[in-house]
Amino acid sequence: MNGPSLDPRLAATLAGLRPALQAMRDPWWIIGSAGLALLGAFDERPEDVDLLTSADDAEALTDSWRGHVQADRHPADGVQFRSVYARFVHFPLPVEVMGGLEVRRNGSWEALTVRESEVAVVDGFEVRVPALAEQIRILRLFGRDKDLAKAALAETRARTSTSGQMHAC
Fold it and tell me: Quick one: which of 68, 82, 137, 141 has the fewest CB in 10 Å?
């Protein structure tokens, strides 16, 4: 996806992330608003890039980019989410890395797993994103008002249009 609809800040951030993403040992995905934008299911410009990784890959990124961590930023929902978390601010959009993300449901922790992926091609780079139905499931699992609103928008968008630019993986 390189068309005029892709936010140039998102494209530039993904270009900057490319070497690190290619070096990761474990699967990774772009989720949230940026993931929805890559699927063509979110018209608003993302304010950050949410990167879901393994705990090991998140720790490796934190070691590599230690000088770019926004130290005063911590997830606001520490009771609902836990992960190896860091927010990096050396790209056009901040990148929030969540390694080994778990979500608290019914009093216990549940590891977030991505069940179905697609690939968005950005400037020749294959970017992994959860499939649209999977993104919606994840947003509903998160359960915050902002996530539920994004899920509703994505569902509406899914009913009104389709994108032929993705490939299952």
Answer: 141
